[in-house]
Specification:
Blueprint lengths: L2 H30 L1 H7 L1 H30 L1 H4 L8 H12 L14
Length: 110
């Protein structure tokens, strides 16, 4: 893997980790004030916030996939395959059950 490509992947992973951490904070905030927000915005307002966050995340990941495909289509073709949601759900359950998940990494990525 070329240094430029590795740098791009490292950058993407850092941004993705920060974005996921931010999304988790947004959802935690929603849960903390769900009663108040439901009274003010209703359930539809809370769901609209969730949908907006998820759409933004989806657009972000799609732009990353486009950038990788421009770099090396043969190498990253697998990114265009449908997601196996069962495996992803299992992976997420395992990941989030691990100690320290969701905490920012104090060490810089190398």
């Amino acid at each position: 893997m070329q240094s430029e490509e590795k740098d791009m992947l490292d950058r993407m992973l850092r941004v993705d980790h920060a974005g996921e951490f931010g999304a988790n904070r947004i959802y935690a905030g929603q849960m903390a004030v769900l009663g108040a927000s439901s009274a003010l915005l209703g359930k539809e307002g809370a769901m609209a916030c969730t949908v907006a966050v998820e759409e933004s995340i989806s657009e972000h990941y799609n732009s990353q996939i486009r950038a990788l495909m421009e770099k090396d289509p043969d190498r990253y073709t697998q990114l265009l395959q449908p997601i196996d949601w069962t495996s992803l759900a299992l992976l997420l359950l395992i990941t989030f059950s691990m100690e320290g998940v969701g905490q920012p990494n104090p060490r810089p990525h190398s």
